[in-house]
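Bumping my old thread because nobody answered last time. Still need a sequence for this structure:
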């Protein structure tokens, strides 16, 4: 293959959204997403609670800050 014919691999990412309960550390995938069985996935968990879990919040703040593509100066200003 000639160098000029080389094309980078295109990786597509899709997002699905659903609500579930985490039980025993397991997230159940709803039946309508059964195609996702045996797939690798990047998981983001959004938790809505009336109380603040300080330790969990510290982990969340640390983790989100380490993902470069999640950084947005304008959005960060809105939350600070």
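Sorry it took so long. Here it is:
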């Amino acid at each position: 293959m000639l160098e000029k014919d080389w094309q980078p691999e295109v990786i597509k990412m899709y997002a699905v959204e659903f609500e579930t309960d985490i039980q025993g550390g397991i997230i159940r995938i709803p039946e309508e997403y059964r195609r996702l069985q045996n797939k690798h996935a990047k998981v983001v968990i959004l938790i809505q609670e009336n109380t603040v879990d300080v330790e969990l919040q510290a982990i969340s703040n640390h983790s989100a800050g380490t993902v470069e593509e999640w950084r947005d100066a304008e959005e960060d200003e809105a939350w600070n």
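The beta strands are 22-23, 26-27. Let me know if any region looks off to you.
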